[in-house]
Amino acid sequence: MVEPGERGATRIADRVVAKIASQAAREALRGGGAADADADGGVDTDTDTGADTDEVALADVVGARPYAVAAVRGGVARVRVAVELRYPSDIGAHCGAVRRQVIERVGEMTGMEVLEVAVTVERLHVPQWERPERRARRGRDRVR
């Protein structure tokens, strides 16, 4: 039998941490993050609309899956995550939720400390700009 000190070490690849971070970002944006529930286990509501936060988050998430890149050095990870959101939405709240969820999930799944999570909003989707052909058709329908 090999003694524990002689066995070596387990190394988790950067791309594995990036994959975990990408999934965590998706969870956060879909409202599945632990940070979305309040301390007593209730559900947060959007104060402007009174809507359930999960419903608001689902409505704001669009486009491609979040993309992440990670750099791991000595058990410490630094992560960059790129997301796409619908506009208008609370961009700061979404980025904060992504940051918290990535730190939590990478930490619990790998045992690493996450020192930095940089969240980049790569694209904002504005509903009326999504399909210009529909907008043009509606414009023609209005003017008769």
Architecture blueprint of SSEs:
Layout: H1 14-29, H2 53-60, E1 67-73, E2 76-86, H3 91-110, E3 113-125, H4 127-130, H5 132-142
Parallel strand pairs: 2-3
Antiparallel strand pairs: 1-2
Describe the structure.
- The chain is an alpha+beta fold and 144 residues long.
- Helix content is 41%, strand content 22%.
- The protein is built from 5 helices and 3 strands, in the order ααββαβαα.
- The protein has a 3-stranded mixed β-sheet.
- β2, α3 and β3 form a beta-alpha-beta unit.
- The longest helix is centred in the C-terminal third of the chain and has 20 residues.
- The chain is elongated and about 65 Å long.
- About 19% of the residues have low confidence.
What would you call the structural class? Answer: alpha+beta
Q: Write down the overall geometry.
A: elongated
Ends apart, CA distance between termini: 87 Å
Radius of gyration: 20 Å
Low-confidence stretches: 33-59
Largest sheet: 3 strands, mixed
- Which series of helices and strands comes N to C? HHEEHEHH
Multimeric state? single chain
Helix content: 40-55%
Report the strand count.
Answer: 3
Beta-strand proportion: 15-25%
The number of helical elements comes to 5
Major sheet: order of its strands?
1-2-3
Mean pLDDT: 78
